[in-house]
User: What shape does this take?
Amino acid sequence: MKKKIMLVCLVFPSLLFAQKDTCIISGKIEHSSLKPSTVVVDLLGTKPLMRFISAGENFTFKISAPADSIQIVGVRLTYFDTTGNIDGEGDLYLDTSRIFYQKVRLKDMVPLMLAPGEIRLTINDPAEKMLRPKLSGPQNTVDYQEKLSIPVRQINALLDENESKLRRARANGEDTIALKIGRTALLKQGFEINKKYIRDNPHSIVSIQALKMMGPGDPLSPKPLGELTILFNTLSPEIRNSKAGFAYLEKLKDLKKGL
Assistant: This one.
């Protein structure tokens, strides 16, 4: 049975390819039960669609990554069994542990912040529920992965679990007070991850991404948008006046207009 692996990268709306700064993403897929013949990397959301193909389990490709902008991609590991017949292309979509035919879901991806330099990924356990490749590279990339992305994704997974329990409890007529208290605690913990990073890193462009991850603000704050403004103003002039900083300030103004 011929198999191949696809790494899917979803590029979210952001400032793309504006300057000549380059990010090199290289890596290796290590898995005892699978030796891929092909590695395919797609950058979804770009026009036209960008696709990189490497032979074997090693891959290397280059992407423009301006130093003063923010570009987040989502990395997804996908298996294909070419004996199937899905979408007329003969590919049966396989998850890391089971066959399924759903579209790729964002929460199953690994958000990755691009930065000038080389990002090295080693994917050695694709059977994990939450894909966590070993990562090395620019400090901004590592910071985003270890101090924001992974902790926030863990909280979001707990919030999803809490929401499921709440729905079951309501359907069964059970008391939900403890679950609601737990949800409030999780929300507070999740937003504090972003707030702490911003307070501790006023000179990092990653702090702008931390602000963006807070959306319209902490719902537990008396003045969510006011708090976002205060947090933004704690950043260094260099970060506030960067391309990403100006873009976020415009977004903040739009949020305030919507009140």
Summary: The chain is about 35% helix and 25% strand. Residues 144-257 form one domain.
